[in-house]
Amino acid sequence: MLLILCICLLWLPTSGLWGIQAEDPNPEVDTRRPHRSLAPTNVDFAFRLFKHLVTLTPNNSIFISPVTVSMSLAMLSLGAGSSMRTQLLQGLGFDLTKVPEAEIHQDFQHLQYLLEKPNTRLEMVLGNTLFLDQRLKALESFSAGTKRYYKSEVLAIDFQDWVKASRQINECVKNKTQGKIVDLFLETESPATLVLVNYIFLKGTWEHPFDPESTSEEDFYVSGTSTVKVPMMFQSRVIAYLHDSELPCRLVQLDYTSNRTVFFILPDEGEMDTVIAGLTRDTIQRWSSALSLGLVDLHIPRISISATYDLKDTLVHMGIVDLFTSQANFSGISQESQLKVPKVVHKAVLHLDETGTKPATTPGGAPNLRALLAKPPIIKFNRPFVIAIFDDMTWSSVFLGKVVNPT
Fold this sequence. Notes:
Elements: E1 2-12, H1 39-56, E2 62-64, H2 66-77, H3 82-91, H4 101-115, E3 123-133, H5 140-150, E4 153-157, H6 162-176, E5 194-203, E6 216-221, E7 227-243, E8 249-255, E9 260-267, H7 272-277, H8 281-290, E10 292-301, E11 303-310, H9 312-317, E12 342-352, H10 367-372, E13 378-380, E14 385-391, E15 396-403
Parallel strand pairs: 1-5, 1-12, 3-4, 10-13
Antiparallel strand pairs: 2-15, 3-5, 6-7, 7-8, 7-10, 8-9, 9-14, 11-12, 14-15
Helix pairs in contact: 2-3
Keywords: Glycoprotein, Lipid-binding, Secreted, Signal, Steroid-binding, Transport
Protein name: Corticosteroid-binding globulin
Function: Major transport protein for glucocorticoids and progestins in the blood of almost all vertebrate species.
């Protein structure tokens, strides 16, 4: 059995509209094609993946890192047999009659480099590690490809002793993330013959932080009959916002100090499904162009969300079927016949707080504008909402979430 586990840990304690930024390419990375060549395909896949997850669990919160799922499946294709490899890449949205496979991996190589570029005001760790049953031998061509394009390594591990193996995997991931991700596996979980751990840790700072002194306990309306208490953050300032005339929602855009843009999307009462159905690449572009700057009283909950998904049903519905049959072909990873039928699991953790680099402003800020506009619009995220986080430089969908119950 193959187990793919995607771990996403986000500290959302964020810059600019979604657009083109200057590059500083690594001379060792092939930069003949711009990094933006991946963006349309990856973002389209992101929304398809998100919508399928929402359909399968309509009443639950959802939180995923689509770009890391794309990376994981693209990397897995390096070890897949011919027909399954084609299905994987087509399932990700690539037209193999127009884009050679080698070029896809080169673009992901460049994308990962750009996402990992050192930044003093943004802490992010992402990567992949493969743990292969020590009874099996990884092909050198696969190990070399994953290392070259995805900075990944293949580590031998004794899956006969799952308790010991789970501890070793936990320790490895903990070390690679500098202690940010711990206790990845439980000792009681089912063993596998190959485990692919995909992890991302992100800690950013708001361009305009929230004042912790303005955070207070308030009601969050999960449904018409269910209410929970949440710490609600508050700020009153000039913000990019929109009351959409095409989709029944309001939204605000907040920014990291370094190349991350966050959309908070508040559907009108009872219109969550309509808004999610309307989420597309074109919608994000339209919002970016239509947002207006104005004084807003903004309320956003300080929340922590953890979610784990077995993506089998979702990926099958998206057309990636062969991966989950007894005919699954991983001959590019190992010539051993035991490597069959994968389990694909994605885990994400969100922590959203007030943190920023600048001193937080007081609720009475922007006195001149407030004098002109006595009653600024109030946008309060006190019912189910959507969050979308993009990397400005690569246009990648770093995180997508549907928050139903923030507790």
